[in-house]
Amino acid sequence: MAQTRLDRGEQFNGWAFVMPALVLLGLFMIYPIIWSLWMSFQVGRGANTSFGGLANIQRLANDALLIKALINTSIFFVIQVPIMIVLALLFAVALNDPTLKFRGLFRTALFLPCVTSLIAYSSLFKSMFSTDGIINQVLLTLHVIGTPIPWLTDPFWARIVIISAITWRWTGYNMIFYLAALQNVDKSIYEAARIDGIPAWARFTRITIPMLKPVILFTTILSTIGTLQLFDEVNNITQGGPANATMTLSMYIYNLSFRMMPSFGYSATVSWVIVVIVAVLSFIQFMIARDRRRAS
Amino acid sequence: MNFAPLRRAGVYVFLSLAAFISVFPFYWMAVGSTNQSVDIVRGKLGFGGNLLVNFQHLMSQVDLYRVFGNSFLIAIISTVLTLAISSLAGYGFEMFRSRIRERIFELLLLLLSIPFAALMVPLFVMISRAQLTNTFTAVILPGIASIFMIFYFRQATKAFPRELRDAARVDGLKEWQIFLYVYMPTMRSTYAAATIIVFMNAWNNYLWPLIVLQTPDNKTITLVISTLTAAYTPDYGVILLTTVLATAPTLIIFFVLQRQFVQGMLGAVK
Predict the structure, then answer these.
(1) N or C: which terminus of chain A carries fewer CB neighbours within 10 A?
(2) Collapsed DSSP state (helix, strand, coil) of residue B77
(3) Band of the pLDDT at B197, cuts 50, 70, 90?
(4) What's the complex ipTM?
């Protein structure tokens, strides 16, 4: 009997500790997600809405701007995330060497971009990349280019600006995760590899990368979500332009809902496109991780 | 042939270049706040004498004290509530295991990947039906139960010595007292790191405040920067000065608490 009562007490305490968070998450996360599923079947603008069945889903397929936003998001994801993760890994491995001088200084410098707000650094980048701005001046002085690059008014270069900006802001953040993980890797593995005459590059690809796989997977998922949420930078630097070349999914939903006459039903449908994409990507990433684990 | 010194030099060049690129925009921001907009757009790299003029222009456009007060108020309340709610939950999930709660925790980890963009429309409709638009409550409330922070605290709690809890139980402390008087002081480096992360996120938050805060007297500093940047002819001197002011608090916190930050990331318990 005493045992049962103790268990009941444990149960009660367990629920008491997690309940405030669960209530809030239910109210501000689970309920909105489920409700937006209902909303996604509503058509009409503003307060004037009615049940539209699958009309919104049909609209998705013919929505050129949505497809553009999807393509842009994939471009940012496919190009930016690998560059950032490789850079962050290289920084982390270099900084993990205890014989390196000025480690603290390098680490602080590389992490520094993470303290800026997305809006603040977007404004900085916008001013640096203006047509006669500092970046063009430096490139002209170094004779890398002959004429100034129209960074913010050309679709191709505008994407480059956004990719550079995000990479600048987030590489140090990812590096900190890798550094932390590297400190938990047993040093004797590297010693043994060194004694066996395994070159540095092979040590990196054969020891470091496999050891850090869980963290790399974690940061990849974070970056994927980050790309799908991309809003602050594009809204501030390019406003989605030129010619919608930097329009992202988040920005498209924002425009549908909060610019001009709101169309909440259709924006809920587009929101669910994001939910589905996230679900599929997370699933793929976990499957890859599991397969590799089995193979090795 | 020994390539080690050459490779070592390469590493230094690589890191120095990366460090320079990382730090340069900060220098640019500081320099820009003292220059006229025309000079900034022309890429002037030295300090100028326009700081006070920029400051006067900024003050004439926005109620700076009010805007800063709003940002601080929102960030501080968000941080305190988020830490309280999330550490309670992280502790609860880790210390009181049950099958149902493990299932719930797994569900939360799945929800972790849902981007805010997917939530903002229904959230906004909810907030406006509750007539909370243009209030700080609307900004703060949806963010305080953070799955990321719950996960973070649960991970950190794995390193919390169970003997401390058992000893406190023997001493007759109730569970909430153990949390308050044993767990929280022991985990202060975890709290320090979480404070930095949550405060920065709240301070820098843009999209959700942009949606729910509408009148100028409720705006936060990030909203002001974005309004200034979106102007037809943006005054970059004023904008960069504002970014300096907006970045200063997080920069100071980072430099003061850098050690705790790294320790917290490693889940260390003092």
Answers:
(1) N
(2) helix
(3) confident
(4) 0.86
